[in-house]
Each structure stands twice: as C-alpha cells, then as structure tokens.
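Please, does this match?
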Amino acid sequence: MSVYCPQCGAPSNSNTGNCEYCGAAIPQPVPQYQQPPQYQQAPQQNIYVQQNDPRQNWPVKSKVAAGLLALFLGGLGVHKFYLGQTGLGVVYLLFCWTCIPAFIALIDAIIILCSSDENFEIKYRVRNG
C-alpha cells in the first residue's frame, strides 16, 4: 500500500515516518479491519427427499412380470404371491372356482401394466430391477 506525503505529494516507501523529499511528517496508515465474507446457505432443493431412501431395501420385482402373471395366472392369485401380498393370494386361491378372482386379476393386470414405474414401486413396495 503506497503512502503519499501530505505536504509535497511524493510517494513514500520508508517506515521512518518522514518524507524523503521534504522531510514532512507522514502519518502511518491505520490497518483496516476486514470483515470476513458472509456466506449464504445454499437453498435446499427438496426438503422432502431423504438422504437414505427407504426404497433401497425393497425387493426387486418386475412390473411387466407382475402384469403378465396377473393376466395369465391371475385367477389363481399368482401375481399377488409374486408381489408379496400373500393374504390376497390365498383369498384368490380360495375363490378361484367362482371366476371372480380372474375378472379382478384382469383389472389388476391393466392397472399394473398402465401404471408408471414410480407408482408401481410405491404401491407394491418393490423396486424395479
């Protein structure tokens, strides 16, 4: 930082306190305190996203396989067993002679095959592999 003589305006590089040219007293600059920069916290993208996704522990199941099982073997409840819904699978097996489970399985097949991957994962608690 350059200091100039208030009397003659000449630059002074010495720390003696006097101008080298005219001998006038040069006041020494007072060091300025610099405040550290203030950092702003970055805005959070999505506060609802968890760091550890619970879907990591879900079993891997195929949406297409579940839909095809519902379409061809749905009257026996095979797709429910595949998706981990054992109780409903047993109900389908018990009432398979009435053909009502086959009709419901046809609707299940349409719903499964037309749903998005994310909705399928959430609804049946599985991951697509």
Summary: The chain is about 35% helix and 5% strand. The chain has a mean pLDDT of 81. The chain has two domains: 1-29, 57-124.
